[in-house]
């Protein structure tokens, strides 16, 4: 039976219905808590669903918000500001997904792929909430990251009482959530296992690896042995452990075992499901999140109904407990759920914060301004120029670096090229590309490229980044100038000693380089664990290093025009604030 409690939040009394039992269509029950005002007036509800545990989310009532790099920052407290939700006269309903927290049921792999659709569970949960006497029948959703992805999975199921969603910081292309340009990213391990300042899943004993469940023991042994043949994987102790003991890390085991894109990740891809969504959707993401910004824009383009896209300012990580963006969220829900005509739909569909200029621009699409793709060429002595290199390869010796594996060194080798100081404000908004003509002496390596805005004082801010595993260099039919796409459906080992063109996708960004500032590009095959940008991320937000020594030669001559292709704006936006 549900327990009834009260909580005093700065003079506001909150009624809490603890441990509600929400029936699913297959008979299992999910656990939930509901927070609302003191009287019994029915109110619209905002639903938050994740495997991180509803008790953890309750810390939003007692823990002051923490910003990275605070050691108290916990990435999983993401369901929103409970007291603010109640103050705005909504019911905040926080539920545990199946196989987590106090809920029943089995959770199979990541996002329950191969088990009961989490969108199906969300449908049943939302419809149950709408029928409760404390709800007026109108439901929205709340929460970032995993909670944000759940909103899209729920909306694709079209529950009748779900009126609109507001998604901040969601993960949408599930392959790109873990493999950036084909390079494994460790952050999903933190979300699952609780490494690096994240509490992780509130898992129960009913959590299962999809690979273990669907493969025979003999097939699984063969596939594990094949994965361990990757020298990058074999050199990383945590991955060796995961592959040998999958029952302890079931979801992470499944991700490590599936290093190529395809059906495994597409089954629950929200971008694929987006055309089924017909309710209003507000998408919000902050710059500096790279692949997350990319996925948010892809989702926005795929949506068919009323929609907004809001790309906010750097830095990339929001507070935990999550409190940002609530003003925008309540304005959205007041319009679509409470019927308050506040003019939100009279405004342009796209709003983007431009770094450097520190101003907002708006438009009806992404990018909000017309752009012209122009090239900046890699030149001798670490220079970037609008003019290509005139000399042939025999006269223009390549740049290069040797990277020893991190098992034997702590030093990450980095090549740099930079522009001359800008003479006038120069604005870039959109995606980009880096064309690198490179020779390596191994069958594979990583290319990690980052663009920085350097101020005359020496201070710098990350503008965008790009990643590519050399064996994933294949492009597909979606590729256009400045907007490359890689299918990641197969690995093509490199013939050592051959010059290949590698085209890295530079994640969407918006920045103005002010007079006196320089654009600096860095290239490496590994990454430092702490710098001006990485210090703002959780400790596990780094990529799997290359497990073998590699020599890289970067050719930048008349026959091999290594270059950046960047989106320079050519017209004013509809509005600049």
UniProtKB/TrEMBL annotation:
Keywords: Hydrolase. GO terms for molecular function: dipeptidyl-peptidase activity. SMART domains: PepX_C (SM00939). InterPro entries: AB_hydrolase_fold (IPR029058), CocE/Ser_esterase (IPR005674), Galactose-bd-like_sf (IPR008979), Xaa-Pro-like_dom (IPR000383), Xaa-Pro_dipept_C (IPR013736), Xaa-Pro_dipeptidyl-ppase/CocE (IPR050585). Pfam families: Peptidase_S15, PepX_C. SUPFAM superfamilies: alpha/beta-Hydrolases, Galactose-binding domain-like. Residues 330-565 form the Xaa-Pro dipeptidyl-peptidase C-terminal domain. The keyword Hydrolase applies. This is Xaa-Pro dipeptidyl-peptidase C-terminal domain-containing protein. It comes from Rhodococcus koreensis.
């Amino acid at each position: 039976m549900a327990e009834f409690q009260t909580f005093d939040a700065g003079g506001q009394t909150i009624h809490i219905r603890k441990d509600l039992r929400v029936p699913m269509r297959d008979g299992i029950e999910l656990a939930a808590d509901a927070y609302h005002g003191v009287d019994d007036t029915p109110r619209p509800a905002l639903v938050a669903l994740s495997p991180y545990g509803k008790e953890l989310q309750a810390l939003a009532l007692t823990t002051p918000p923490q910003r990275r790099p605070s050691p108290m920052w916990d990435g999983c407290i993401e369901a929103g500001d409970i007291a603010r939700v109640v103050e705005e006269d909504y019911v905040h309903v926080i539920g545990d997904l199946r196989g987590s927290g106090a809920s029943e049921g089995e959770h199979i792999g990541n996002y329950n792929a191969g088990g009961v659709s989490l969108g199906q569970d969300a449908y049943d949960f939302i419809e149950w909430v709408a029928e409760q006497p404390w709800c007026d029948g109108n439901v929205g959703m709340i929460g970032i990251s995993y909670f944000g992805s759940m909103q899209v999975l729920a909306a694709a199921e079209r529950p009748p009482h779900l009126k609109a969603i507001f998604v901040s910081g969601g993960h949408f292309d599930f392959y790109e959530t873990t493999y950036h340009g084909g390079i494994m990213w460790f952050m999903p391990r933190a979300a699952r296992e609780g490494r690096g300042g994240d509490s992780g899943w509130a898992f129960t004993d009913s959590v299962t690896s999809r690979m273990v469940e669907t493969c025979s023991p003999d097939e699984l042994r063969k596939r594990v042995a094949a994965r361990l043949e990757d020298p990058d994987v074999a050199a990383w102790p945590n991955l060796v452990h995961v592959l040998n003991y999958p029952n302890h890390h079931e979801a992470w085991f499944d991700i490590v075992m599936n290093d190529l894109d395809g059906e495994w990740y597409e089954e629950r891809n929200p971008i694929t499901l987006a055309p089924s969504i017909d309710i209003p959707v507000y998408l919000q993401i902050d710059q500096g999140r790279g692949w997350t910004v990319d996925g948010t824009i892809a989702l926005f383009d795929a949506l068919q109904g009323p929609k907004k896209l809001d790309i906010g300012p750097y830095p990339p990580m929001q507070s935990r407990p999550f409190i940002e963006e609530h003003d925008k969220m309540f304005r959205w829900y007041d319009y679509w759920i409470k019927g308050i005509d506040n003019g939100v739909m009279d405004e342009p569909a796209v709003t983007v914060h431009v770094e450097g200029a520190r101003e907002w621009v708006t438009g009806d699409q992404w990018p909000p301004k017309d752009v012209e793709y122009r090239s900046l060429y890699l030149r001798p002595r670490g220079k970037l120029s609008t003019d290509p290199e005139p000399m042939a390869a025999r006269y223009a010796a390549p740049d290069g670096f040797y990277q020893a594996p991190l098992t034997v060194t702590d030093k990450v080798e980095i090549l740099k090229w930079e522009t001359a100081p800008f003479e006038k404000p120069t604005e870039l908004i959109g995606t980009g590309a880096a064309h690198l003509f490179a020779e390596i002496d191994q069958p594979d390596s990583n290319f990690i490229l980052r663009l920085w805005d350097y101020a005359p004082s020496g201070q710098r801010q990350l503008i965008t980044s790009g990643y590519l595993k050399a064996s994933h260099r294949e492009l597909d039919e979606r590729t256009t100038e400045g907007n490359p796409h890689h299918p990641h459906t197969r690995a093509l080992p490199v013939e050592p000693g051959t010059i290949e063109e590698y085209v890295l996708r530079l994640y969407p960004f918006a920045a103005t380089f002010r007079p006196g500032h320089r654009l600096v590009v860095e290239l490496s095959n590994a990454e430092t664990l702490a710098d001006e940008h990485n210090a703002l991320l959780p400790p596990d937000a780094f990529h799997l290093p290359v497990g073998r020594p590699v020599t890289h030669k970067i050719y930048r001559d008349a026959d091999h025009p290594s270059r950046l292709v960047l989106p320079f704006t050519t017209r004013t936006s509809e509005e600049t604030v």
